[in-house]
From TrEMBL, chain B:
Gene3D superfamilies: MetI-like (1.10.3720.10). Pfam families: BPD_transp_1, BPD_transp_1_N. This is ABC transporter permease. It is a multi-pass membrane protein. PANTHER family: DIPEPTIDE TRANSPORT SYSTEM PERMEASE PROTEIN DPPB-RELATED (PTHR43163). Residues 94-291 form the ABC transmembrane type-1 domain. The chain crosses the membrane at residues 12-30, 98-118, 130-156, 168-188, 227-252, 272-298.
Length: 497, 306
């Protein structure tokens, strides 16, 4: 009898297995390097946090696969004048608690993030907004302090939160138990371990592809890859290029990569030290083999760029050429400037690839400079890099993304006189980026940015190195096209047997 | 005894106070979290505004006094990164640190003590040399390497154990071994030295001369006498295991205090770091006091002396 029972159980098990597999995948597990710092979408803005919470919320507008700004909660928008934009709000959208999403909620969301009381670290992305108001006809009107061309690009990042609920439970309560209108509902969060989400079956945009999604915090990249290989995780973020190459041969695993708006660049101090001499800055530009860096260190997951920008960024241009790799010319320039053996301080932190930094150091030393790497933790790095020019080192490697796909978010903060990052000042450059910031005319703006990039080429306060690719490891059944703005919307994913 | 205990407690309080003061000063002097919190493109005014809102523009002394005033009411402050009370974050991680320390201690004591005894009992033989190799391996292989090797062998190749994370007892096995290996070697070495030392003493020869078997001598007398130095080590090791599991916790995605500490230091989440420092100081003090009491329980001479 017992043996019969066991045999039946076994047979049932065998039969049940494929039946279960055919029913599709229930739970998607995603490994991120860190836990979400906050689930309140108006607080922390970092990749691991928004990878999670942006699935819980809808945004006012979003980007399609081609990077174009398209409707989400707003169905249409119209400029009333240069500083006033009216949005039509989508009908029939409900929050996870069943309440209706209205223009009031949209206006509240905008005003909440710019309210000093919230102390939002994201404030700077929305600081050009004067106010938002719900109009009587159900529209929302956003007023900016001056004509602000990057407004829509910034609103892609604005999550809509339920006014009544947030006011009822308070900021802390909302952060602990967020409610949105997005494709996934918050279930639970265990600090440093995982966040669990459930599908919102009533989602206005269609049925979400997985019933449950688990985001786990797995800091070590080797462990994330082991999770992927064993099937414990279906998707892992932040796979380094050298690991991606070895994973290519692995069965059941695929590498998903996408060229992003992020650009690897080298800052060069134009206001202090040996690099104050433009000839030394030009020598540095000639000394760096961008193609070599991409091939050797990024395994081809990157593309050399001529300017500090990338194709998905508005204002990016191919009309301005970079400096060709020419060590002989670099040596001449170093000699001409009398800077042979000049001490070049190379500031860096563990956040940046050590191999990249050392490769650049070698290239600079090869043309007669004496480059010294100074590594500190990220907080100290930022303090020095953004502080007094005399203490901001000669060069530093960085990977820049404004998550707004607009040159205004890149070269303005990096090089505009008075910006914290700028160790450089040129009134002509300032005039160009200021002009591009204050008109809504796209052709005018593009022209201004070409002018600005041309000035940067001559003055060399920094050089573009490569367009960064985002790399994800995924189960080979997962179908997903990652986006240039490094977002992670589960709604765009599916599972193929 | 009471006077001794009170003295110890006052010493401990002074030490803890000194530690939090030093950590406070060092962390604040080396930069505040504002720059890490804002998006890259933030302007100088926006950065200054957030710094002011978060209170980091106040003189360090003002911030320090405000912090102490909070501590006096058991208010440990709110994490500037997570916007959650710092104490809640640390307490939610504490159980995992305790599980892992317990697991590692089980490995360390369970393997280290018998290995030490075997080495002492087989002094000069091939057995001792073979065991010495094990001890040396445990002592010298860095945990980031042993951790990854364990994952590759037992999780990826053999699929016996989960690669990382929490939720089942099986997930505790590999981190415990990786973390316990170093302590295991320490225990084995200490046990061996203490045993060899004791075995050479006159009372052992006397007992043997009276006809007691070696086994009886070891079990009844030698072990007890050898235990004193081993307990001292154990107290220190428990402190280390609770505080020093940063790498193992990172490799195995184990959400303990060590991982939290390193992340909070990197993000300059001052108040969380302070709570962790307080907690770890407390653990060190508590374990060393506990060790004192343990000596007294095991060795009557110490009891009599007080």
């Amino acid at each position: 009898m017992l043996r019969l029972l066991a045999a039946t159980a076994l047979a049932m098990g065998i039969l049940a297995a494929p039946a279960f597999a055919q029913s599709g995948k229930e739970t998607l597990t995603i490994d991120l390097p860190n836990d979400a710092a906050t689930l309140d979408p108006h607080l922390q803005w970092n990749t691991d946090s928004y990878s999670v919470y942006r699935n819980i919320f809808d945004n006012l507008v979003t980007r399609d696969a081609d990077g174009k700004v398209v409707p989400q909660i707003a169905t249409a928008w119209k400029y009333v004048d240069d500083k006033t934009l009216d949005f039509d709000i989508r009908e029939g959208v409900t929050f996870h608690d069943g309440s209706k999403l209205t223009a009031e909620d949209v206006a509240y969301s905008v005003n909440r993030i710019i309210d000093p009381e919230l102390k939002s670290p994201q404030f700077s992305q929305f600081s050009q907004i004067e106010k938002a108001e719900a109009l009587e006809d159900g529209k929302v009107r956003i007023t900016t302090k001056s004509p602000y061309p990057a407004l829509l690009a910034q609103l892609v990042k604005l999550s809509i939160v339920p006014k009544a609920y947030v006011e009822k439970v308070g900021d802390a309560g909302f952060n602990a138990k967020p409610i949105g209108s997005g494709p996934y509902k918050f279930v639970s969060h265990q600090d440093g371990v995982r966040t669990e989400l459930d599908a919102n079956e009533d989602y206005w945009g269609g049925t979400p592809p997985f019933k449950h999604v688990t985001f786990r915090a797995v800091p070590d990249v080797s462990t994330r890859i082991a999770d992927l290989r064993t099937g414990q995780a279906d998707l892992v973020r932040d796979v380094p290029p050298d690991q991606a190459v070895t994973l290519k041969d692995e069965p059941n695993v695929q590498i998903l990569s996408v060229p992003t708006e992020r650009v690897g660049y080298l800052y060069i101090n134009a206001e202090a030290g040996p690099t104050k001499d433009v000839r030394v800055r030009k020598a540095i530009a000639y000394a760096i083999d961008r193609q070599g860096l991409v091939e050797a260190l990024l395994e081809g997951y990157g593309k050399p760029v001529d300017v500090i920008g990338a194709p998905p960024v508005f204002g990016y241009t191919e009309d301005v050429k970079g400096y060709d790799y020419d060590p002989e010319k670099a040596k001449e320039l170093v000699k001409e400037a009398g800077a042979e053996g000049a001490k070049i301080e190379f500031l860096t932190s563990p956040s940046y690839s050590r191999a990249m930094v050392e490769a650049i150091q070698q290239m600079l030393n090869d043309v007669g400079l004496d480059t010294e790497i100074v590594s500190s933790d990220q907080a100290t790095f930022l303090k020095r890099r953004q502080g007094d020019p005399a203490n901001a080192a000669s060069i530093a490697f960085g990977r820049w993304s404004c998550a707004c796909q607009d040159a205004d978010g890149i070269i303005y903060p990096l090089f505009r006189t008075g910006s914290t990052w700028a160790k450089y000042s040129n009134p002509d450059f300032d005039a160009a980026v200021d002009a591009a910031r204050s008109t809504l005319d796209k052709d005018e703006r593009q022209k201004d940015y070409v002018t600005a990039y041309k000035i940067l080429r001559e003055d060399v306060p920094g050089i573009g190195l490569y367009q960064d690719y985002a790399l994800y490891g995924a189960n080979s059944h997962l179908k997903w096209q990652p986006t240039p703005n490094e977002s992670m919307f589960v709604m765009d994913m599916s599972w193929q047997q | 005894m009471l006077r001794y205990a009170i003295g110890r407690l006052i010493q401990a309080a002074v030490a803890v106070f000194g530690v939090i003061t030093i950590v406070f000063v060092v962390m604040h002097v080396s930069g505040d979290p504002t720059l890490l919190l804002v998006p890259q493109g933030a302007s100088a005014e926006e950065i200054a505004a957030l710094r002011h809102q978060l209170g980091f523009d106040q003189p360090i002394l003002t911030q320090y006094l405000a912090y102490l005033a909070g501590l006096a009411h058991f208010d440990f402050g709110i994490s500037v990164v997570q916007r959650v009370p710092a104490i809640d974050i640390v307490l939610s991680r504490l159980p995992y640190t305790i599980y892992l320390a317990a697991g590692a201690l089980t490995v360390a004591v369970g393997a280290g003590i018998p290995v030490g005894i075997l080495m002492a009992a087989n002094k000069g033989t091939l057995v001792e040399r073979a065991l010495a190799a094990v001890v040396l391996t445990g002592q010298s292989v860095p945990t980031f390497l042993s951790g990854i090797l364990l994952i590759l062998i037992f999780a990826v190749e053999l699929r016996w154990l989960p690669t990382s994370g929490v939720g089942s007892l099986s997930a505790l096995i590999m981190p415990s071994i990786a973390l316990g290996a170093l302590s295991m070697s320490t225990f084995a070495r200490m046990m061996r030295i203490a045993m060899v030392d004791e075995l050479g003493k006159d009372y052992v020869r006397a007992a043997r001369a009276r006809g007691l078997s070696m086994r009886a001598v070891v079990m009844r007398h030698v072990l007890r006498n050898s235990a004193i130095p081993v307990i001292t080590v154990a107290a220190l090791e428990i402190g280390n295991l609770l505080a020093g599991a940063v790498i193992v916790e990172t490799v195995f995605a184990w959400p303990g205090i060590g991982q939290l500490a390193i992340q909070s230091i990197q993000s300059r989440d001052f108040l969380v770091v302070q709570v962790i420092v307080l907690l770890i100081s407390f653990i060190y003090v508590a374990t060393s006091v506990a060790a004192d009491f343990a000596y007294a329980a095991i060795d009557p001479r110490i009891r009599l002396a007080r």
